[in-house]
Structure prediction request, 412 residues.
Amino acid sequence: MLDHCNAPGLISLEKAQALLQKHITPIKETVDRALAESLGFILADSVVSPVNVPSHDNASMDGYAVRLTELASEQALPVAGESFAGKPFTGTMPEGCCVRIMTGGCIPEGADTVIMQEYARKTPKGIQFTQWPDAAGASIRPMGDDIQCGACIFKQGHKIKAQDIGLLAAMGVSTVSVFRPLKVAVFSTGDELRQPGEALRYGEIYDSNRFAIKAMLSKMNSEVIDLGCIPDDPQRIREALAQANEQADVVITSGGVSVGESDYTRDALDEMGEVTFWKIAIKPGKPFTFGKLGDSVFFGLPGNPVSALVSFQQLAAPALRVMMNMTTPPVREIQATCQTPLKKHPGRKEFQRGICEITDTGQITVSTTGGQCSGILHSMGVADCYIVLPEDNGGVHVGDSVAVQLFDELLS
Ligand code: AMP
Ligand code: MG
Prediction:
């Protein structure tokens, strides 16, 4: 099904993203995970709080619990007992008395206000207060102030962050139901590739794509099946694709999807499965290929390192998030004043690497990282954003307003 490929020109990024959504299916299987092991997983169910947090009215200050109306005079109040965190005062606070209370201590029955200890003086007859508020309720954290029992705190599709683990623990949740991780098989292709740690011979380079792709996949909590580095040999590539399809939900390759003599990956996919589309009107990342391989989906990333990262992040990652049932995070795009001239020819949407800053006067500015060739991988390392230049636009002058897409959690 190479109709898009045969169409004159390239398909737009937006069209490619829309097509991807049509061709992928979210996974259904769920697993239970211990709370401490759930970071980054996607909730399979909503979470409704089974408790109030806090579970009781309690003091937000160290001081004394009182009845506010009894503070109208200068009279000292005897201390009837103590209420410390985890060691509550039992019974009702006797009239005309106060209770020593510490932060987190339950408010004794009868008390309506906590006076901080800085406004309390010990006298032989009890505690004399030097200041008190006009209305009752001061320095009290009411039951359910943080989370109400029965409230829906997280919806299905929510990605569990570190602070959410704290919140779930605060609700007493010990296990969460999450979608199982996606199984993603990864391999790179290229006769020229060697592995870090090995010596390079003339004309060889290190296989950097597979490491970067695996790192981004582990940020997405995917289960990575690493099939290594495959030479530019059609038979070996077919074998790797067959193994990948057997073991994984998703197959991601790098290299071999261009139009060169040794670019065999797309042809192999065409024989064994279906090339749904390739060649996107973006720079870098044009040769990105999407297809079906048995019951797996296939993303063929270009070999050039920046192209591989940008096309993974712009095309593969959003599709993977849908497959993982993750609620789509908003793209953080803002306008910034460009501080450096940028070269561009009309025709493709460009994702130039930039460094975004906020000046002393609050102006948002962006500068290029320098060389924008798709082999300049260090540009991705120094950047914190893309400068997104629309398909039809030409270059940018200093002072022009440009769209800036801040790097998402995969790249930061
Ligand atoms: P290809 O898409 O296979 O034609 O490769 C395009 C360029 O990317 C070539 O210069 C390759 O040497 C380079 N390249 C391909 N795969 C990788 C990889 N895994 N890591 C780093 N560079 C690569
Ligand atoms: Mg190659």
About this structure: The radius of gyration is 30 Å. Confidence is low (pLDDT under 50) at residues 1-8. Residues 305-323 form the longest helix (19 residues).
